[in-house]
Each structure stands twice: as C-alpha cells, then as structure tokens.
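BUG-449 | component: ligand-complex export | severity: low

The export step for zinc ion jobs runs without errors, but we want the raw record kept on the ticket for reference. Input record follows.
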Amino acid sequence: MEARDQRALLKNEIAKRGLCSLSLSLNVPGFPKSNSTVKAFFSSCLRDLKYTLKASCIDIKADKAIEDCDRTGDFFIVPFTAVHLSLTGIKQIFEDFEEKHPLGRFIDVDLNDRQGNSVSSGKSKLCFFCREKPAIECRRENAHDFDALRSYMFSEMAVYCLKQKEELISKKISSLALKAILAEISLTPKPGLVDKFSCGSHADMNYQTFLNSTAAIAPLFGELIHEGFIFTRDDLTRALPVIRNIGLRMEASMYKATQNVNTQKGIIFLMGISLFACGKLFSQNDYFAIEEFRAIIKSICKDLVSKELGGLTHPAKSHGENIFLKYGYLGARGEAESGFSVVFDYGLPQLMATAELNDEAMTRCLLALAANNDDTNILYRSNPEVLNRFKGFCDKALKNFNEANYSEVIDFCKNENISPGGSADLLAVTIFVWLMINFDQQTGFTHIF
Ligand SMILES: [Zn+2]
C-alpha cells in the first residue's frame, strides 16, 4: 500500500470511531523526505504543537497517537476531542500556529472531521521559496528547482534547530546558576555570612536583601551565555570587556534592588565569567567538558592580575585593589586567572562525594574553600593574622566535622566581626559546577533538544 493511502486509512479508522483527528506533516519537496535535520525540526514542531493543543483545551488521545516516518516523510496523527470548540475554531488555532511559527510555511497541521474529511479554511498559502505565488501554483507548475528548494529548506531548518538548541541550553544553564546562588544564600547556619536566620557580621543586609539582588541580576545570565555562544575571536582576553559590560549592568540592577548595598559584586564577576565560558564551551561541545571549561576561563583571565593589579598606585578603587596594595593578596582576580583552582582543588571534591546537594555537603565544601582561600573580604575587615587563624579553624572543623568545631568557626567570625564573602562566592561557583556535571551525567546536554 502506498504511504499516502496508508495515512488516509488511518484518518478513516479514527473517523469510524466517531472522532476527529489532527495531523502534523512537513512540506518537503522531492525525495527522500526526511533526514536528521528534518527529523529534529519535526520533533521541535511536534513538541510546540502539543503545548498549543493543551493550552487551547484540545484533548488529544495520546495513547492512540501514531508518529512515524514513511516515504511521504515524518508525520503524526492523533484522535482528539474539544468540547467547547467548533471545527472552524480549531482550524483557526492550527492556522495561527503555522503563522506564528518562524518556519510555519514548512509546516502542515491538518484537521479531519468525524467523517474523515479534511477541514479547510479555503485560504491558500504563499510559496515558501518565492513568496510571490500561492504554494499550490508553484507546485503545479514545477516553478522551482527541487534541489534549490530542498537545500534552502534544510538550511533554514538547521539554523532554526541550532538556535532552539542554544536557547534550551542557555535556559538550563541560567537556571542552574540561579539555583547555585540561591543554595549558597540559603545554607544555614554559615560563619559570619548572611543566612536564613542571621545577618552574620553584616549590619546592612539580610536574607531578603540577597533574594532581592539575586532576582535583579538573574535576568542577565542568558545574555552572558549568549555572548559566549557567539564569540569567535581566537584571543579570549577580548571577552573580558564583553563580560564586564554585562556585569556592570548587573551591578547597577543589584544596587537598585538593595538600596546601594554591595551584596553580590563578587559573584557577578565569578559567575559572569563562568556563564560566558559555558556559552563558549557549548558553541563547540555538546557536553560539559570540565578541563575545557577551566581552559576557557584561564584564557579569558590570562595575565589579569599583572594587567590590573601590577603597577597599581594609591588610592585603590576597590576593596580587592586595596588588599593587594596592602598585603599582596590576589583575590578573585587571582582565583579566576588560575581557572578557579580553589574551587576545583578543594571545594568540588567535597561535593563530588555526595549524590545530592545537602546542607552537610555544602557546609563541608564551604569549610574546604575557606580553609584554602585568602579571602579579601576577611582581610578588608581585619589582617593576615586573623585570616590565618580563621583558616585554621575551618581546617580543623573540616578534618573533624562536628557541631562544636563548626560553632567555633561561627563564633570566631562573630567575635572578630569578619565575613568570608569571597569563600561564599566560591561556594556558589562550586555548586554551579557540580550542578552542571550532574545534569550532564543524568540527563545530558546532548539530549536537551
Ligand atoms: Zn514559488
């Protein structure tokens, strides 16, 4: 039996049961009608169509659906009920779907009534290639060369699918970054830092301030990833001004949301570089390659310390610069230039030991980071001697993890009025990396589309 007759038979079988049916197919001229690009595009259309149907209260009988690919190409057919809609109303929904879709001219969503007859609106579609004459006319006259039509269509579909994939990956990465930042803020109790129940050693901010500023900076995560995706220069140090440009806008949003309190300047810098690096990584990879991620960060921040801290003179413009001039510590710039060595050497191994994020794993991770990080936030409020004592308490609490030892760290911060904000930022980055690794292992970025 011809493939076309086979489809007509399917529609009639559904009609025999007294149900309407809808089908999705693509207008691919010539043969073969399917390949990997067409299939990816078809799946994406089908996914979008199913949401449209559900949103319009068109109830498809999913267990009776047939999705197949034969000589006439990829197709999907399913019986449905829609109690509150007329056939004309349903046809209109399908036409709107085709019209709204950027490549709707390649798509056919057909409607068959309870007798199995095709319901047409009588409107003719324009030819997708010349966009001058009705498609049916161009087809009848064989107006265009099949090979030209096909290569045009496949390249449009490929570009569309790539863009869709970038969007899906970007949304996933953004959501993991947001989750990491919220997980760090919410971890309670924390030494000297703002948590759910305490402001730590801070008088001007609390948990709510952090929620406000996180909500203010998160909308720009996607932009950072996108810039990484489209960055094609060989010299990655040229990416830094691009990242800073977005970072400065995030800082402005942060200050607005917090009435001028600096809650997250550190994480804006570190997460900014991380998100850009992810975009760059996924423009050339389908999975989260850790060493490549680190290599990209190192390349972006190559010579950052010598360029920005070398030759620095008083007065310093920022806390980080001030600490460098006073004691020579490199701060977040040094950590970034090393490709997050404290994160990968000390923080991540603590989280990798756990199958799911929990307070104990994150607390151990924070201690491991703090025991090995020359935190400029601590130095800003004290001196290297206090920093070293703090690192010693963290080390002790990590090696012998119990409530008494952890309380000792918390009490020390309280007494010295210090807060390991730099280590908290590194904790958020470590959680982010852990989330990326776990998502990749469990779901796989390859299967996101
Ligand atoms: Zn035409």
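Assignee comment: Attached the raw record above. The longest strand covers residues 73-81.
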